[in-house]
Every structure is written in C-alpha cells, then in structure tokens.
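Record type: monomer structure entry
Structure origin: computed from sequence
Chain ID: A
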Amino acid sequence: MSSGTYSSNNSGISASGVQQHSDIPGSANLSGSTYLVDEQATEAFGRALALATQPEQDNASPHGQEIDPGTTGGRIFLFGDLGAGKTTLVRGLMRGYQHNGPVKSPTYTLVEPYESPGRNIYHFDLYRLADPEELEFLGVWDYFEAGNLCLVEWPEKGKGFLPAPDLQINLQAEGSGRRLSWQPNSAAGRKIAQRLIELPRNLHGI
C-alpha cells in the first residue's frame, strides 16, 4: 500500500431512516454526503459500507449456505466529535461482515482485530493516544498491509505516523441527526465510493 500521511454532495445511499441528498448528477464526483436520522440509520450506512468493501460476488456456497464475506481491504479514516456515531458506523460495518459479537471502541487498547480466514479487519481508536510516535511501537504499519481493511477513529491524533487514507468519512451533528460525508483519496477509495453510489441500484432494504 502506498505510504504518506493524510493531510460536494452526491449520495447514493438509501437505507431505512437514511435520506438521500444529491446536488451533482451522475457519479463523476465520487465525494458525497447523506443525512442520517438516527443510530439505526448510521448502522445501515455501516452495512452499506461493508458491501462496498467486499468483492462483488455471491456470498452463498454451492449448497445454498451463506459464507463469510471477504474484503477488498482499504484504509478508512473516521472523523467526528465524541458521540458523532463513528463506533456505531463500525458496528454496522461489522454486522455487514456477519460479525454478531460485541463491537466496542478500543479506546484503551487502540486496536481491535476481527480476523478470520481470508479476511482481516482492524478497528482503531486513537482518542487516548498521548503521542503519535506510540504508533511506531504498536507496529501500526503491519496492520495496514494490502488486503486488510482498517477503520481509524480519531486519525488526527496519529497524524504523521499513519499511511494516507483511501477514504475519509466525516460525521457532524445536523438538526436532530447527523450529516455523513465521504471523500475518496486514492484509486482504492474511488472504487469504494463508486460502490457506495451504485449500491441502491443493485440492492434493496439496506
């Protein structure tokens, strides 16, 4: 994966409780935003993001049994104030990857691994990081190997010691809900953003 540090509205996400917002027709501009009315809508977007980071294939075995989905990987940075819904979004994403166990923000451990055969997902929370140099002692670059999916809360705390993101997501309070916006920063990020835009045309009831 490429090194370096991280230094518009065209939403295609439709979900129960998610209101679409689109100012730019077509998908030439892959940055976008959507309004999330509540926690359920935030989880729904997380499930959509899971689908956007999975290989485009049928997740059923030849015997009709659902199989664990793989991941195309990527580095997704999550920005937003305390309580903005970052961990809720990650919980929705993990539900989209058929993880039914608890999904907690790893505030004290810094990283929570979700590893299974053929798929590695890592959830970082850097809120309590005292010094970004601590990431070197963590061996953080090992987690960001190609093919791994890494979601990072509070990435600004690790500025200068993290690889550049493929996709940035920002959550901000708006009215009684939240405005979620995304911006791709790489070819991999553009593929994820394109999938987000295309999903409603291919799927229903997200």
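Annotation 1: The two ends are 30 Å apart (CA to CA).
Annotation 2: The longest strand covers residues 167-174.
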